[in-house]
Input
Amino acid sequence: MTLILWSHPFSSFAQKVLIALYETALPFEARLIDFGSEASAAAFRALWPLAKMPVLVDEERGLTLPESTIIIEYLHGLAPAAGLLPRESGAALKTRLLDRLFDHYVMHPMQKIVGDRLRPDGKDDPFGALQAREQLRTAYGVIETELADRRTFASGHAFTLADCAAAPALYYADLVEPFRSGCPRLAAYFDRLLARPSFARVLREAEPYRQNFPKPRVRTSR
Output
């Protein structure tokens, strides 16, 4: 089996898939995407014209799979013993729901805030960033309530797809809209994610790129 992951170690959605790969212990080749390199960017766009990372290629089966959740579902099929999806249908449905919660209501608004910091002067969207912060705070409250039953991980006591989504989403979200002071259960859950070897490894691999995280925009009064 030859699995190739096209990604970047600092990408939140790429980290989601890397966590799953380390949980399954499936061998793979990491193919770095560098949008600063014309050749690298062109090679990736030839593979996936939408140019959204990560993308997994299974050369043996002739498959090219974009989208982090789809990739992890595929990895689960290759290594079901890792338990990335529960066997029971109701528990699996809950896991998929929480995966969507972390992607759409934590990861995406976080990216909106970060993206606003990267816009050129005069092209920023302060109102959109404010809306994203409000959505993040609402999502934090939903997750805090979800964790009221003292579960270890997002959907129960086993580490699943939902936790692969949660770990990078919460890591970056906490940098732009901190949650520890108001959400003690969420904070404790995130600490358990930080202690997970697969996520700890992902963070170590991303460390050389940490300096590239955009700082908040300095707004001047007019």
